[in-house]
Amino acid sequence: xxxxxxxxxxxxxxxxxxxxxxxxxxxxxxxxxxxxxxxxxxxxxxxxxxxxxxxxxxxxxxxxxxxxxxxxxxxxxxxxxxxxxxxxxxxxxxxxxxxxxxxxxxxxxxxxxxxxxxxxxxxxxxxxxxxxxxxxxxxxxxxxxxxxxxxxxxxxxxxxxxxxxxxxxxxxxxxxxxxxxxxxxxxxxxxxxxxxxxxxxxxxxxxxxxxxxxxxxxxxxxxxxxxxxxxxxxxxxxxxxxxxxxxxxxxxxxxxxxxxxxxxxxxxxxxxxxxxxxxxxxxxxxxxxxxxxxxxxxxxxxxxxxxxxxxxxxxxxxxxxxxxxxxxxxxxxxxxxxxx
Amino acid sequence: xxxxxxxxxxxxxxxxxxxxxxxxxxxxxxxxxxxxxxxxxxxxxxxxxxxxxxxxxxxxxxxxxxxxxxxxxxxxxxxxxxxxxxxxxxxxxxxxxxxxxxxxxxxxxxxxxxxxxxxxxxxxxxxxxxxxxxxxxxxxxxxxxxxxxxxxxxxxxxxxxxxxxxxxxxxxxxxxxxxxxxxxxxxxxxxxxxxxxxxxxxxxxxxxxxxxxxxxxxxxxxxxxxxxxxxxxxxxxxxxxxxxxxxxxxxxxxxxxxxxxxxxxxxxxxxxx
Lengths: 340, 273
Known about the structure:
The complex is a heterodimer.
Chain A: H1 11-31, H2 42-46, H3 56-90, H4 102-115, E1 121-122, E2 125-126, H5 127-149, H6 156-179, H7 183-193, H8 202-221, H9 223-229, H10 233-238, H11 243-265, H12 271-283, H13 287-311, H14 320-339
Antiparallel strand pairs in A: 1-2
Helix pairs in contact in A: 1-13, 3-8, 3-11, 3-12, 3-13, 4-5, 4-6, 4-7, 4-11, 5-6, 5-11, 8-11, 9-13, 12-13, 13-14
Chain B: H1 6-10, E1 17-28, E2 31-42, E3 46-50, H2 57-64, E4 72-77, E5 80-81, H3 87-91, E6 94-97, H4 109-114, H5 129-141, H6 157-170, E7 175-179, H7 187-204, E8 207-211, H8 215-221, E9 224-229, E10 232-237, H9 239-242, H10 245-252, E11 256-260, E12 267-271
Parallel strand pairs in B: 3-8, 3-9, 6-7, 7-8
Antiparallel strand pairs in B: 1-2, 1-4, 4-5, 9-10, 11-12
């Protein structure tokens, strides 16, 4: 029986598309460690000879570049996938951690934890990421309650206004906390706010990876539901989607991954806005492809941005957030123009 | 599958109760929209929900589709309260099509139709051959297959409406609810939509409930109409019986003249200026 009259997603196409994005990430991750202000000899770095401490090449590769690249991969994946999910749930393609104030909320949470000198762990999370996650959730709750207040469909202008307001409010609170901090804490806060991937070790990576992977798994699980939710709450209900559950799980998971990352890297803007758009142009709007492809492409994108940040003005480094903002600002204006 | 309601055992199978709405009330915030709504929908009939703007037509259809839950009273499908259905299970029996279809993301027509298969798929599953066959049939029936690959946002209003109907058909429902399916369409598109619905009603014995503004179309198309005013049912009867001068003048608050079309017994209603 001839039924294939229109192209459609199946397991084969899924594996091909997601696999292609995974291969891109693999290539980027293989190439990036070899690029930098100091040339390293790969053969020498990998020659597990005696004395790791004396092997400069191995030191640069394993202690400086690789952890930083892993950090960029985690952060890029997390920010991109949460951008894609925020856009679906709020039905607005300008939604992203930065435009919703989620990054701002995460920043405030982290800064408060640093200022208060919190030092505890809860369910394996240390205090700063935990506070950051709560801050991200708080910001989202604010924007979302505003969105609810305005009725079913939230116009772009309201959403952005709410996001900007929340972001500005949190930025001011961060300043306030900073003002009442002593010089050591203040330095710590400012250093953190500048964002960056350079102060990373494997222990930090191991603490970020589980919540990020867990959140991504939840979002991949929700992918087909997100297709329907992105077309409207009521029509999704009519098609059998438990919308409240999808919204709750989706926003929790997206905040979890954003919070986990932002707590360690500081705010890095625009990844969550740019990446889902580019990926959508390539694979289309189906979240079954969009979500995993955004994970891999977001990781690749931030590694590339960070590599540029390391080499453009070498030996000086540009904070990676500056690079993403230079790309993201004009991109945002282009999107805004195209919409109206 | 479900226990038959008390009434259906008495009535013959042609007039089985599909949905029973009993004393349903609904309010948005503090604004009452529907009060004391009771009627029943029988298998295979076409019910028109008629009334002026703001009379509660859309809200009533949403209550019937389980999109909204009544504040008091009940809505039951085949004798079982809608609130006790799992979303997925309800979507396999009842479909609902909104009046407008805002789509932010560039989904293709075929993808929109396939979304109708959602209630039959487990979270990790992809659509299978059976799903494609059903979606394709739905597109053939609604004559949307020829633009299956177009972007949903690139097609006309009438085409969108047909695509949404195709998606609802793919749900394989027993009851289809449509909120003003002919609104803002020209005559040709209106007839296309109503022809498709009539076909579905005949071929699949699909029960239909739709809100519709055009009283002439309603009298041609519906077996029965429910007239709403300020959230209450004014009349529940056949179109001929319900579209009487006094009743319509009360409901719409305008003077009307009624003409009868002797060919098919439908009525033409014209406001008196």
